[in-house]
Amino acid sequence: MMVRVQLSELWKKPMIMLLLLFVIYTVSFYIMDSYAISNIDDWRYAFFCEPEGENYLSVFKDGFTREPITSFTDAVKSQEHDYFKTNGRFITHTLTQYFCGTCSMKQFVIINTLVFAIFVLCVIKLTRPKQLNISSLLIILMGIWLLIPFKGITFMGNISLSINYLWAAAFNLLFIILYQHIFNRQCSLWWLVFILPFAIITGSLQESFSIGICGALCFHALIHYKRLRFFEIAILCAYVIGSMICILSPANFNRADDIGGFGFHLGGIFGLFASPVMWLFLITLIFLAKRKALLSYFLNDSMMLSAAIITILFVLFVAYNGRHQLMSVNIFMFIFVCKTWFSLCKQRRIFQAAAIMLTIIFLLTWYPILHARKTYYDAYQQLVKRCYESQDGYVNGHDFEYLSAKYFRNLFLNYNYVGTFTFLDWGLHDRDLSLWMTKGKNNTLVTAILPNDKSLIVKDCNKENEIQPNLFRISDGPLLYYVLKSSVFVEPESIKVRIQAPSKYIILPDEKKE
Q1: Which of 263, 404, 468, 483 has CA 20 to 30 A from 216's CA?
Q2: SS3 breakdown of the chain: % helix, strand, coil, rounded to 5?
């Protein structure tokens, strides 16, 4: 009886309940993230960038080997080259190379979960109403899980994308909180000793965040210029300096030719997985209900919406060629919509209904998502095991590629919770995988990841799918395999394999002649 009384009293304490919900949510993320797998980016980031102009994105030559990253110093030395040749995210990619080279995925998942917890706390801080309660907390937590896309890639994907996007998001949101505290005179100016270098570092982490936040800081300064002191201007300038270190790196000018064009960027923004259309719809509803209040609110707190708008304009007219780079827009819009709704809507029943609906969807989808991630993880582990055990370098990867194709076609799972595109679009780069498995010593351990056993592939080559003499096309889901059969015996080491997503070109001997 005493235990029941104590429990009932415990449930009446709001902070205990809020903390319990947060812990459960964080643990659920850790369980999901435990089934993250390394992909091609992780394999390549685990090695030094080459000083002769080659980098971890280069196509490997025959007999090419890599020097592995074994310490933080190695990662810094490697990025000294990378900053000028490949990408301007010096700090982010230094961390990425360090963790890819020295940390197992299981160890990284623990650290990644802690960063995710920081990210969630920052979102709560930036969106919460005047009094945080169970309904508003559930809306925020479930909203992060259900409404922000690309989590299968950027939150609980591989090491490199998690650091580049989740970590950058967490620390940029933390910077905004610190800036607002300084602006609102809520913390001592001695904090500037910490905030100024933190602003430079944060601004240099990731251009898809820093461009929008730079513009938002400037817009905020123009609206509130009468309240600005030297300290706010110093913080703004420090963040802009950090952003310029990243954005104006020589490497970014070298990559300027990769711009996809206006039509591509427009399609990316309003595509299915980038959801500003949804955010614009929600903002329109708020505007229709609270026009004057919304305008007044925006003028007083414009950071998130202006950051999103500036990022969208930059994406449309300048750069970005990956939908996951639009994650920043969705985070900015999510925070703005939630904070606006919490500030302007006073009807408690609406909050409760929204919290119940989102929680039900979360509970109904959590296990199917977990099952999909675990199934995909198990298939990947089996594939790697077969690679280690292979005698001739040929590995049957049908089960893994079948799942990649299956989840790729699932609009709910792919990008949002599984993120198969990194394998399906690029194909399994056999030499990259070989170098990763052998710590850079051998790039021919895996000759080819095949769609089935070699004997079955040869049997599938018949007159029905012969497109040229001895050239056959085999379909395996959305992937196409082009098989060229040789009429004489060919030594395994002389068999050439060319991978070009979404098709694979495979040259195999005719097993009847072997």
Answers
A1: 263
A2: 65, 5, 30
